[in-house]
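User: I've been trying to design a sequence by hand for this structure and keep getting stuck. Would you show me what you'd pick, starting by listing the structure so we're on the same page?

Assistant: Good idea, let's start from the same input. This is the structure you sent:
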């Protein structure tokens, strides 16, 4: 993470075409970044305590405060939708295998298919959902 953050910082700092570029830095524990990189004081740094609901709150706040998006759903609704999507995705993958395999095998195949899914495939599933 420090390498990518350094590239992003350098691009924004030394290239006028990117001076309006914004970054969100997420950390597990508050002020954890101070252990590795103290030069980023003053950046938008949000901690999530390794709790998915808090992570979503951080992202939602950043999109509203920094990006300027309005009319966003509450973080609880976003998290609920995320759970519903993943549940539906798993069920669809299970059904794909259920007619030819027992429940345990179908579950295993579905899990493996989801774990091995590439980001473009995952995005396609989201769009379809």
């Amino acid at each position: 993470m420090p390498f990518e953050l350094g590239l992003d910082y350098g691009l924004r700092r030394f290239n006028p075409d990117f001076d309006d570029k914004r970054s969100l830095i997420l950390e597990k524990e508050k002020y954890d970044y101070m252990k590795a990189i103290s030069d980023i004081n003053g950046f938008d740094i949000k901690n999530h305590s390794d709790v998915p609901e808090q992570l979503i709150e951080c992202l939602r706040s950043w999109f509203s405060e920094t990006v300027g998006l309005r009319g966003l759903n509450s973080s609880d609704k976003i998290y609920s939708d995320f759970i519903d999507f993943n549940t539906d995705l798993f069920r669809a993958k299970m059904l794909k295998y259920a007619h030819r395999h027992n429940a345990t095998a179908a579950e295993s195949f579905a899990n493996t298919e989801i774990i091995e899914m590439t980001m473009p495939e995952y995005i396609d599933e989201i769009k379809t959902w």
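That's my pick for every position. To get oriented when you compare it with your attempt: Residues 75-98 form the longest helix (24 residues). Helices lie at 2-14, 52-67, 75-98, 103-115, 119-128.
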